[in-house]
Amino acid sequence: MQEWLGNRLRKLTGEAIPLNAWVMDAVADHLKMNFRVIDDQDQLLDYGRDLKKLQAKYVIEAGNSFDQIASDELQYTGYIQWGFDDLPETYEFIQKGQRFIGFPAIVDEGDAVGVRIFDTQHKAAIQHQVGLIRLFQLQLRKECTYILKNMPQSAAVELTYHRLPKHPIIQGDVEVSYKNDLLHVILHSVFVEGRTIRSQQLFERSLQENKPRFISMANEAGKIALEIMLLYGSIKTQLQLFNGNDPLAKDVSEQLGFLVYAGFIRNTPYSQLKVIPRYLKAIQYRLDKRMNDPHKAQEISRYALRYWKDVEKRAKKERVVPEQEFFRWALEEFRVSLFAQQLKTAYPISAKRMDKAWDER
User: Fold this and answer.
1) For 108-133, what is each residue's pLDDT tens digit?
2) How many domains does the chain have?
3) Based on the domain organization, do 149 and 166 belong to the same domain?
């Protein structure tokens, strides 16, 4: 940087200027860019040097404006099967003489699906995943009806699920339903997860190749969900034996709030849903042994606080699904390694590995 500034000043002034700290700061400040926010009529709305601050301030307005502009482009609605064109990763169009690039996605319309263009790839990816799940459900009405009727469950468990507290940070926008949430994660695991489906051909291939294991996967997932809810109920009973201000009880209650909450089944990939019983058994073991080593509790708290603060910050700008992020589950594995080593972790985990995972997230 210093060498580059020196060369620039030499070209501009014809002199070699010694670059002390004051000169460096002054030149660097001079070279900072001013960013402008303009509307469709090229009228100046705002300006400043802090791009992130401006983006955060106008992100909602920009998104709404894009939705209006793109409303006439590549719009489909009311489909119960793949009756539209293959979807490109990006879609370029021109409106009012301006060039726009959007991201097409299938969207869930409840009893049908549609196609919309979104202003960010992140929004499109989330909507497309949910839309695909709905489309597979529409194509498998008979099988889904059978699964909903024969799902392993109990009335008490279903009632408990419906009464779960909300996530401490993320506000859900879908009505909580034990059976429907479980069906959602099963469909995702069997037909969608790990696949890029943007054409009718790929949709039909996934449908035909994976349909034979749909029912068996549903039975397995139903048993796992039932085990989770029973373990959760047992832990809540254990916590009643503790004083509400007990550090151990407070720590476990906080952990439980992020792990088992209203709608958690819908948000949790099946690969992770399968291991939640181990996390809950680790909690039980810790409560049984009244294990609250302050050093260990502080060690995990350092990572948990950092992560959930980051989630809260991101959630103000876009939809965040922590259950789809590696670090969220690394927290649970780290807890197992600290408080219930005999249950073993899914992979080697340590403070050093947590630091690396945070840097690479």
Assistant:
1) 999 999 999 998 899 999 999 999 99
2) 3
3) yes
Q: How many CB atoms lie within 10 A of CB 5?
A: 16
C-alpha distances (whole Å) from 236 to each of 164, 177, 252, 260, 277 are: 12, 21, 10, 11, 14
Amino acid occupying residue 118: F
Q: Tell me, what's the pLDDT at 97?
A: 75
pLDDT at 300 over 70: yes
For residue 303, is pLDDT > 90?
Answer: yes
Instruction: Please report where in the chains the tokens 């799902």 appear, as a residue.
Output: 151
d(CA 334, CA 341): 10
pLDDT range class, residue 54, cuts 50, 70, 90: low
**Pair type for strands 98-108 and 91-95:** antiparallel
Q: Directed axis angle between helix 214-239 and helix 155-162, to 10°?
A: 70
Query: What does the buried/exposed string (b/e) look like for 153-187 if buried means 16 or more CB atoms within 10 Å of the residue's CB?
Result: beeebbebbeebeebebbeeeeebbbbebbbbbbb
Could you tell me which residue, 240 or 11, shows the higher pLDDT?
240
Integer-rounded Cα radius of gyration of the chain: 26
**pLDDT tens sequence across 265-283:** 999 999 999 999 999 999 9
**Triad 126, 224, 322: Cα angle to 5°:** 30
Provide the residue range defining the domain that includes 7: 2-50
- Give me the count of residues in the chain: 361
Return the H-helix or E-strand segment holding 313: helix 294-315
Domain boundary among 29, 50, 71: 50
Give the residues across from 93 on adjacent strands.
100
User: Quick one: pLDDT at residue 12?
Assistant: 47
Residue 189 Rama label (left phi>0; alpha psi -120 to 50; beta):
alpha
> Is there a single domain that holds both residue 293 and residue 351?
yes
